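Researcher: Next sequence.
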Amino acid sequence: MNPAEFTSTYYIDRRGSHSRKWDGQHLKFNRTDLLPLWVADMDFMPPRCIQDAICTYVKAHPLGYTMTNPNYLEAVIDWYKRRHNCILSKDWLTSAPNVITGIMWCIAAFTKTNDAIAVLTPVYGAFDASASDAKRPIIAVPMNRNEDNRYSIDYSTFEAAIVKHDVKVFIHCNPHNPVGHVWTEDEMDQLFSICKRHGVLIISDEIHQDLVAGPLPFTSALTVSNGAYANNIITMSSLSKSFNMASLHHAEVIIPNEDLRRQYNTCKSLVYHTDSDVIAEIAITAAYTHPEAEMWLTDLLAVVKENYEYMCSQLLHALPELRISPMDGTYLAWIDFGAYVKAEDMHNIFENQCGIAPSFGEWFGGKSYATFVRLNLATSLENIKIATNSMIQHIHP
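Model: Next structure:
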């Protein structure tokens, strides 16, 4: 399908469905009448093969206690091999209700109170919250923004922060939310070698791994340098971003190191007593094995690319000093309005004048990013046109 056909087939008006993004705006904005481009889920129905698989199972089976289905495990392993050239062993796979919960369980399993945890900022704010809620200090290492608005790492600064704060865990985001960067193998090799040198455990959040439409291919942390760091890495992912099913509470947690895996599962057993989520497993199996789902994903990326290119071209024509980061991965645009809007005016202009609910930059690392917004492009081109035109109308050169 072309983008217009995909949107006509799968776009859905989510108002009134208890959607957090659409109906839960009051949780962040104290109002409900904004065009929501904040929460990172989509305004598209998942592939029909997934819908059918769930319906077929529910009609044929009671929703009683179940065990993990081997077909689900095989589907995950095949997807990683086929899509990402990453070879997994079945024994490496465990789970969490979602990636953030998995990260929180790792923090509980592998650190103690006051142990430091490092991140590269700007970064998804839930990383900070997970650490602070557990009384672990977060060590924010700012990335460098280059002239082309891409982000890079000062490795000496990263290592100095690791040493100074005796960091125990590094939470890696690949692809990176919110800046849209897809990490190269060389970049990760340099990061991971520092972590290895100083005994730092690596948690790699790879939830956006399938949402890559730029020139750089996705590389899993597990495959860097032919798996040289895999024994010190825990990766996590979920179909929630790829196929818009965040309400199915299931994430893959992949731990090659048997001792780390046992430690994680022991911690998990103290707080989580349940069997497998049969609906999630059915959905994942369909997503990872059905050709229709893979085509849906390809078509979705074309929609996101069209939305990104439209927004960029229109905004930069009207506001040429904007700084927009290349979106090589994710469906999230990261834009700095600092040339036109003061930090203290951002909320008023976007909410009260533009009528848009964005993710504001300070949510990803504090005041340093107060003139930024993250905008969710996984919606209709019509919505993107409305948002873009409103920004052009209310933000002046």
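Model: Residues 291-318 form the longest helix (28 residues). The CA atoms of residues 302 and 377 lie 11 Å apart.
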